[in-house]
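Final report, Chapter 2: Outcomes

The project's central promise was a pipeline that accepts a single protein chain and returns its three-dimensional structure in a standardized token representation, suitable for archiving and comparison. That pipeline is now operational. To close this chapter, we reproduce one record exactly as it appears in the project archive, with the input sequence first and the structure output second.
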Amino acid sequence: MSLQVMESLPQEPGPGEFCIRLPEDIPFEIAATSMLRGLTAHMLLTVSYPVSSGPVLLVHAAAGGLGVMLTRWAKHMGAAVIGTASTKEKAAYVIAKGAR
């Protein structure tokens, strides 16, 4: 999936056209941070450095929200991931998510 940039919208967007309905049990703050993490991971893995099968990536703080997302997504794209973590418990968590 690649990011498509449009010069302009084909028509004026209507109310709610770019909205995502949240389930009642997901707070707005959680949804917003998850969306931001996803956009950041997407840009890092497809624009900043387009990942394909084969490269080895180093992900610092791999047990954090963005680190876990980067690790899992990069593994899915075929990269090997080395993750750093500050404690043995976090290192075990990172390994369980696919990092070395």
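Archive annotation: The chain has three helices and two strands.
This record, like all others produced under the grant, will remain available to the consortium after the project formally closes.
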